[in-house]
Specification:
It is a multi-pass membrane protein. By secondary structure, the protein is mostly helical. It has 18 helices and 2 strands. It has a two-stranded antiparallel ribbon with strand order 1-2.
Length: 474
């Protein structure tokens, strides 16, 4: 009996966060449906959501310092050549996997055919279905904004705002718009990442001269990770609160799910195929290791992402899982993940492809081979431009729909179930970042070994921390 108790104790000690988050999700769902039957007041719903709001705010508090300090420390701990190779491997992997998901989404939408002309009339009778105003921005606008945000004019402002192209109608004009660049509230992840990478890379070339500055950033990063390790145990409570409150928000879950069941099923099948089959096969073929052990080690991050509905907000948990459970080299994980939460949107690419074809099918629009190619390429590109915040993909669907001449106003119909579908695709985005970190570490083992050998030659122990002690300068 004592042996079994010891095994259970060991399992809970090693997987306490996973068990807690799963339990929180289950408790949140059960409590949500029970409380829903009691017709709760708005005050009750606010109180139910309050613990989750506090957890989200805590994670948001940690995101920016973690991204900046991790990238500076990580890129400075590598030499410029290694940084370039890591970046090339990372972006290549993200681009290929996003393209693959877009193609898979197209094939699933063609095979399952989730759209039907009767769906729109069914959904329009439900008050929960909203309307999204058409966004006039083009694909070019989005990528020009991407470049503007990648090189911010002011690094201080990049910490709390980003640049967005806005079209406003001219007074008295017909189809005439004034194009302006406006600041939008929310930290500019691309600008912060770019500046951190440049700063770290230059520090790596200065060797001893920059070592005191690197030690400061590394110490700050160590403190951040310690804060994450402490705060992370509050996430099960936040998961329960957020899921419960979301169940209370939706007025008629059964009716909405019935009408859009085939669409949800198509997206879920695509996400499950990629998450449970494709990623596992890639990991097994490349690393020759059991992929499901790695999957379990990073699953708490995916569950947290499901609850908070954002890969950016869940990033502190993702890094903690990779560092402590998956044992991925922090020099790689702290380099890949902050970039991944900004540009790696596997689930988003798949969703945009399926949603675009769904709307075309619903309006009985016959799509040609060229249209499918346009959807594939555009969905891949706009997914890279998507931000890691809730429901960011819905506005990007407009761009894809314009390429196939499909009505954009029908995007509003997807608001009914996007609270669920967005959470599902967020788990794929987060897991994609985790598997990318493991694969890039494997592909970069020669460069990492060379740096370890160099450190040994300089009298630094081979098993010393590479990211948090300011060592490893090129």
């Amino acid at each position: 009996m004592s042996s079994k108790y010891a095994k259970v104790q060991t399992f809970l000690k090693q997987n306490g966060l996973l068990v807690g988050n799963v339990a929180g999700a289950i408790v949140g769902l059960i409590c949500g449906f029970i409380i829903k039957q009691l017709d709760p007041s708005p005050v009750t719903r606010d109180l139910v959501a309050y613990p989750g709001e506090i957890v989200i705010r805590g994670l948001q508090l940690l995101v920016l310092p973690v991204v900046f300090c991790s990238l500076v420390s990580g890129s400075a701990s590598l030499n410029v050549k290694a940084n370039g190779k890591l970046a090339a491997r990372t972006f290549s992997y993200f681009l290929v996997t996003s393209l693959f998901n877009a193609v898979m989404g197209i094939f699933l939408a063609i095979i399952i055919h989730p759209g039907g002309s009767a769906i729109r009339s069914e959904l329009q009778s439900y008050s929960t279905v909203g309307v999204i105003e058409e966004r006039e921005n083009t694909l070019l606008d989005n990528f020009l904004d991407l470049g503007r945000n990648f090189v911010p004019s002011n690094i201080i402002s990049a910490f709390f705002e980003q640049t967005t192209t806005l079209y406003t109608p001219k007074p008295g004009g017909v189809d005439a718009f004034t194009k302006t660049l406006v600041p939008r509230r929310g930290w500019n992840a691309l600008g912060v990442i770019f500046y951190a990478l440049i700063l770290g890379s230059v520090m790596s070339t200065l060797e001893e001269k920059a070592k005191p500055l690197l030690q400061i950033f590394s110490a700050f990063d160590t403190v951040n990770m310690k804060m994450i390790t402490t705060f992370i145990w509050a996430t099960p409570v936040g998961v329960a609160s957020l899921i419960c409150s979301k169940v209370l928000e939706v007025s008629d879950i059964g009716a909405l799910f019935t009408s859009l069941l085939t669409f949800i099923f198509t997206v879920a099948i695509g996400l499950a195929l990629y998450q449970f089959v494709i990623m596992q096969l890639i990991y097994f073929i490349v690393l020759k290791k059991n992929p499901f052990e790695f999957y379990l080690s990073v699953l708490p991050a995916a569950i947290t992402g499901f609850a908070v509905d954002s890969s950016s907000i869940a990033m502190p948990v993702t890094l903690q899982c990779l560092d402590e459970k998956a044992k991925v080299d922090p020099r790689v994980s702290h380099f890949v993940v902050p970039i991944g939460v900004t540009v790696n949107m596997d689930g988003t690419a798949l969703f945009i492809s399926i949603a675009s074809i769904f709307i075309a099918q619903m309006n009985q629009i016959d799509l040609s081979i060229g249209s499918y190619v346009n959807i594939c390429i555009t969905a891949t590109l706009v997914s890279i431009a998507a931000s890691g915040v809730p429901s960011a993909s819905l506005t990007l669907i407009f761009i894809v729909l314009h390429t196939i001449n499909a009505p954009v106003h029908d995007v509003g119909l997807l608001l009914a179930i996007d609270w669920l579908v967005d959470r599902l695709r967020t788990t794929n985005n987060i897991l994609g970042d985790c598997y990318a970190a493991a694969l890039v570490e494997h592909w970069s083992k020669d460069e990492l070994k060379q740096m370890d050998d160099r450190d040994v030659q300089n009298g630094i122990p081979a098993d010393s921390p590479k990211l948090n002690d300011g060592v490893g300068l090129a």
